[in-house]
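TASK: fixed-backbone design
INPUT:
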C-alpha cells in the first residue's frame, strides 16, 4: 500500500510520525499488506511541500519527529499545544505550521540536552552518530545554517561561500557552530525514532519501501557540496508523456554523469548507503532519467538527452542501478516516455518495473493482466494520477467498453456502468489483484475508493501533497469504513495468493 506518512493522523490526531511506524504496520497487516510504500522522507527545501523538492538526499524531514518521544523535551508550551490543537482540526496538512511548532520545541529540547547531557552516554551516542554520518551531515548542517542566515539560494551567496573556499567554510563553521549542532541533533532524534519504528515494522514482517527522488533541488546541500557534478545552463525535465502533452520542466540541475563516474561516484554511493540504512527496498523515481536525462537549455535551444547515444545510455543506467542496488532491493518507476531498451534492460537485471493498469493498453484495448511480467509491480494508480473514481467516470464510452471486456469487470455492464460505485471499486481492485505481477501497489485513496488525489503534476498549490485521512491512527482499527476496507483487501490478498 502507498500510504504517505503525511497522510496519517497520529494517535493524538497530529501529523503522522516516525515513532508510530510500528503501529501503522499493524493496520497494514490487517489489510494483507506486507510492503509499505512511502513518499520520500528527505528534508524538503524551505517553503516547499513536495517531498520531491529535496534539500538533501540524506537528511530526514524533521516535521515527522514525534515530540512526545523526545527525551529532552519536558512538555510543550501552551502556544505549541494550542497550535497543534488547531492543526488537528484541519482537513489538510499545513506543513509550514507544523514545522514552526516542531522547530520551536526541538530548539528547546536541544538546549536542555546540551545543558544536562555533557559527557553522558547519550552525548557520546550523539557524537558517534555525527561521526558515522560525517560524509553528509556536517556539510548539510552548515548549508542549512547558512541558508537560514541568508534566506536565499546558495547560488546567490557571496563568492567565497558559494564556491566553498576552505577558509570561508571554516569561519562559517566556527561562527554557526551552535546552529549546526542543533540541526545535527534534530537529525539524530529523527534517525533514532525512524530506525526503532522500522525495526518494529520489520519484526511484524512489514517491509519498508522508500522512494528515492531522481534528483535533488538546485538549492540543496547536495548540489552545493558536489556542484562540480552538475551543470546549470539547463534544467531537467521530461518529454511529452501521459502526465503532460507539452512535457515538463522540473527546474532541477542537470547531472554531469561522466564527471561523477570519473570521480568514483561519491554522491551516488552516499545516496545508496543512506537509502539502505533507512529502507528495506526503495523505488527509484523516474528511472529512465538515470539512463538518459532530458535537459532543457535555459537559452531556448532544443532539449537534448545526456548521454546522447543509446549504447552509452544503456551502459550508464545499468551501472547506476547496480550501484544503487548494492545494499537494498530496487524497484523502478518506468512510467512516461520510456524507450523499449530501458524496459528490456530492467528485465535483464530483474528489477521490477511498474504496470499502471489504466495505461496498459494498445489503442484503448487493455492488455491481459495475467500475462504481465512476473518481475513487475501492478499499480492501480500513483501519487501523480487522478483517483480510480475520477479516471473511470472520465473515460470515453468506447474506452469503457474495452475495459469492461476484462473478466473481473464484465459484471459491471449495465445502465450504471459509467458511474463509479462500490462494485466498480471492488472490480478494479480485483483486476489488479489478479495480475501476474509478483507485487501489487495500491494507493490508500484507491483502496478506499475515494476521489482524493495526492498531487496534480504541473500545478503548484496547497492542493498538492497535503492529503490526510480523516481518522486517527487508532480509529483505523475501529472506524467501520476503514475496518471493512482492510477486511476486503485482506480477503483479496488471500484469494489471489498475495499474502506472505
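OUTPUT:
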Amino acid at each position: 500500500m502507498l500510504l504517505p506518512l503525511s497522510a496519517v493522523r497520529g494517535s493524538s490526531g497530529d501529523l503522522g510520525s516516525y515513532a508510530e511506524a510500528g503501529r501503522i504496520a499493524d493496520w497494514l497487516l490487517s489489510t494483507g499488506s506486507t510492503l509499505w510504500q512511502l513518499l520520500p522522507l528527505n528534508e524538503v527545501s524551505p517553503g516547499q511541500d513536495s517531498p520531491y523538492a529535496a534539500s538533501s538526499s540524506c537528511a530526514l524531514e524533521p516535521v515527522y519527529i514525534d515530540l512526545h518521544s523526545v527525551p529532552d523535551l519536558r512538555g510543550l508550551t501552551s502556544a505549541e499545544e494550542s497550535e497543534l490543537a488547531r492543526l488537528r482540526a484541519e482537513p489538510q496538512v499545513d506543513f509550514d505550521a507544523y514545522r514552526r511548532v516542531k522547530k520551536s520545541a526541538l530548539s528547546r529540547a536541544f538546549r536542555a540536552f546540551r545543558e544536562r547531557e555533557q559527557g553522558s552516554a547519550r552525548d557520546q551516542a550523539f557524537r558517534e552518530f555525527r561521526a558515522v554520518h560525517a560524509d553528509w551531515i556536517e556539510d548539510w548542517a552548515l548549508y542549512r545554517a547558512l541558508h537560514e542566515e541568508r534566506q536565499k539560494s546558495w547560488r546567490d551567496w557571496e563568492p567565497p561561500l558559494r564556491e566553498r573556499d576552505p577558509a570561508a567554510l571554516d569561519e562559517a563553521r566556527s561562527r554557526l557552530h551552535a546552529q549546526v549542532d542543533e540541526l545535527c541533533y534534530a537529525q539524530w532524534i529523527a534517525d533514532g525514532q525512524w530506525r526503532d519504528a522500522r525495526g518494529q515494522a520489520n519484526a511484524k514482517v512489514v517491509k519498508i519501501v522508500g522512494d528515492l527522488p531522481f534528483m535533488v533541488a538546485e538549492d540543496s546541500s547536495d548540489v552545493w557540496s558536489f556542484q562540480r557534478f552538475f551543470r546549470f545552463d539547463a534544467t531537467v525535465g521530461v518529454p511529452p508523456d501521459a502526465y503532460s502533452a507539452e512535457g515538463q520542466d522540473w527546474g532541477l540541475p542537470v547531472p554531469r554523469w561522466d564527471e561523477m563516474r570519473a570521480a568514483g561516484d561519491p554522491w551516488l554511493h552516499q545516496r545508496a548507503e543512506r537509502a539502505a540504512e533507512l529502507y528495506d527496498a526503495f523505488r527509484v523515481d523516474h528511472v529512465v532519467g538515470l539512463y538518459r536525462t532530458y535537459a532543457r537549455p535555459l537559452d531556448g535551444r532544443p532539449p537534448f538527452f545526456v548521454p546522447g547515444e543509446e549504447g552509452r545510455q544503456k551502459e550508464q543506467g545499468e551501472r547506476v542501478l547496480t550501484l544503487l542496488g548494492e545494499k537494498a532491493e530496487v524497484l523502478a518507476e518506468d512510467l512516461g516516455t520510456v524507450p523499449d531498451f530501458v524496459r528490456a534492460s530492467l528485465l535483464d537485471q530483474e528489477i521490477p518495473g511498474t504496470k499502471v493498469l489504466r495505461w496498459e493498453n494498445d489503442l484503448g484495448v487493455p492488455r491481459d493482466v495475467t500475462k504481465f511480467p512476473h518481475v513487475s509491480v501492478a499499480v492501480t494508480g500513483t501519487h501523480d494520477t487522478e483517483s480510480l473514481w475520477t479516471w473511470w467516470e472520465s473515460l470515453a464510452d468506447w474506452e469503457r467498453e474495452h475495459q469492461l471486456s476484462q473478466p473481473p469487470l464484465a459484471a459491471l455492464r449495465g445502465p450504471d456502468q459509467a458511474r463509479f460505485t462500490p462494485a466498480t471499486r471492488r472490480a478494479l481492485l480485483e483486476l489488479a489483484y489478479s495480475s501476474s505481477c509478483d507485487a501489487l501497489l495500491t494507493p490508500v485513496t484507491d483502496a478506499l475508493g475515494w476521489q482524493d488525489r495526492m498531487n496534480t503534476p504541473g500545478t503548484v498549490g496547497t492542493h498538492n501533497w497535503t492529503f490526510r485521512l480523516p481518522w486517527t491512527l487508532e480509529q483505523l482499527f475501529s472506524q467501520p469504513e476503514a475496518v471493512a476496507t482492510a477486511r476486503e483487501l485482506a480477503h483479496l490478498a488471500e484469494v489471489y495468493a498475495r499474502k506472505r
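COMMENT: The radius of gyration is 23 Å.
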